[in-house]
Amino acid sequence: MAKSESKKPASAAQEKHGVATALKDQVGGLMETTVALRRELHRWPEIGNTLPKTREQVLSALEGLPLDLTLHQTTSGIAAMLTGDKPGPTVMLRGDMDALPMPEDTGLDFASKTDGCMHACGHDTHTSMLVSAAKLLSERRGELPGRVLFMFQPGEEGHHGAKFMLEEGLLDVAKGKNGSDSPITAAYALHITSSLPNGVVGTRGGPLMASSDVVSIKITGKGGHASEPFRTLDPIPVACEIVQALQMMITRRIETFDPAVVTITKLVAGTTTNVIPESALIEGTIRAVSEKTRNKVHDSIRRVAERIAEAYEMQATVEIKVGYPVTVNDAPSAEFALGVAESVLGEGKAIQMPSPVMGAEDFSYVLNKIPGAMVFLGGTPNGVNPATAAPNHSNRVIFEESAMAHGVALYSALALRTLGVTLN
Ligand code: NI
């Protein structure tokens, strides 16, 4: 199926008449197990790239499905390939599986049983929705012209899990069983958010989420008695000046419409009131929505910090730990996803986001290699205001479980439509 054909949005008539009725019925039949698996994952969250219990839960949920499984060695990642009965390209769907190192205070009866560990970003819902999409699409294997690769990914929360899976050959898919070429032509990921109403999804073409880097600046002076600063090189006022100057740098040196954020979150110096310390440490985060600005901010931080320190005869050592790249949606894929979402969820339920969000996501590594899009899935608990709901990463965040029905339908519909199957 040619790209232009497969990416045609559903026609207005199709949307009005709810062509996806059969799909919705199928999703409805899967909701009980979707919720059950999600709750089980929620009870036993795991952190990082090694998630043995989670992997076991996913594998047991996938048992009996006609999938070719690849268990990754460097992480707990699982690549599960569903091959349709007809030849065609491969579409990839991603669900991340890891939790966060934080206590849970939701009071839910399926709250985390692991101290200091919580599924506060909803990755438990992603994993469970992806399992159900695998079940749904397996039932429709006979009508699939192509393949669906389900990417169950660990280590999204800062551990570069997607990068490790790519390095282990995630995208090097073999030819189809009948010998036909079947390259991965598109990749989609969903992310639940408690800040968007249940039943609504949002995304945009171009940058969707920011890059995320960590900056650390050590200012080295000369310690001494607090009463005689002229005989020392006091790093504290210099550290303060650098913090201020970095904010000025952002507003004066960075293009207004290609923004960046530098937030200093940590400033450490000194031990007591009568001692000037030898050094001061500044740390914080750097966000940008283009690689160009990201690089410019890195250079500018170095220049500002080093030269301010130099002006006071001190030394600033700047270290920048590079994190996730900018998450850039392929514009046609994002449009396609919004069209598919509207045909599944109804008119007006797929929102074109006006701007990116400054959080970061390691699906960015995938989108740097394969055209596709990440889509936010509304999961505000029913009856709660999205503007005041506890946000993702809060110890009190609660996601509306019925939103998972929309997610399962959307994952499945994105795969079906990418392979050129009309929704029914
Ligand atoms: Ni997340």
CATH architecture of the largest domain: 3-Layer(aba) Sandwich
Class from helix and strand fractions: alpha/beta
Ends apart, CA distance between termini: 18 Å
Mean pLDDT: 95
Bound molecules: nickel (II) ion
The CATH superfamily of the largest domain bears the name: Zn peptidases
Give the spatial strand order of the biggest sheet: 1-2-4-3-5-16-6-15
Radius of gyration: 24 Å
Name the helicity range: 25-40%
Textual characterization of the structure:
The chain has 424 residues and is of the alpha/beta class. The chain has 2 domains: 300 residues, Aminopeptidase (3-Layer(aba) Sandwich), CATH 3.40.630.10; 111 residues, Alpha-Beta Plaits (2-Layer Sandwich). It has 11 helices and 16 strands. β3, α5 and β4 form a beta-alpha-beta unit. α5 crosses α11. The radius of gyration is 24 Å and the shape is elongated. The protein binds nickel (II) ion.
